[in-house]
Predict the structure of DUF4865 family protein.
Amino acid sequence: MIVLHCSVALPRDYDMARVRSRIAADGPAMDAAAGLVLFAHGVREAGSGGVGAHRYSQVSVWANTSRMGAYLWGVGGLERVRAQYGRVEVTVSPVAGLQLDRAAMPSATILEIVDGVADADTPLSRLGEAAKDAAAKAIKSRDVHAAIRGLDAQTGRTWACDIRTGLPRDSDGESFELVHLSAPAQP
């Protein structure tokens, strides 16, 4: 599996109601996307919780790269996001750990993303095992309904995403309001 994280910084005067409207219109199209494990759309609004700028973020997990490629290069996928918002920051990582509680996911309200630091000196086998264990530990928390851990093989940098309920946590990462979540039963 592979995780794709796309993020767009938006100006403070950008109409976030417009972003929410686009997500409401376009998000459900992903509900039946072939090869999709999950797709989360989140927003951060300037001025709330000390946030300085608006940001729109997407996290998707795909069963294989060809299915993710269809989203990346298809007209209705990332190309649409680029046309709507301009420059998009994109990170792609193999999934090192994934835990889902599909029954609880509809109640999720928060998309939380943490970028780890590069660790090129530790063997990838240890980093991968640690990421897998971190996802398994995270899902045991009552408020976490999906835990995704990615690992960049070049740098040894880990990446974490938890989809959960509750208030944003004090962490080194970014918390987004979860606006739409697609989680097809079968990827």
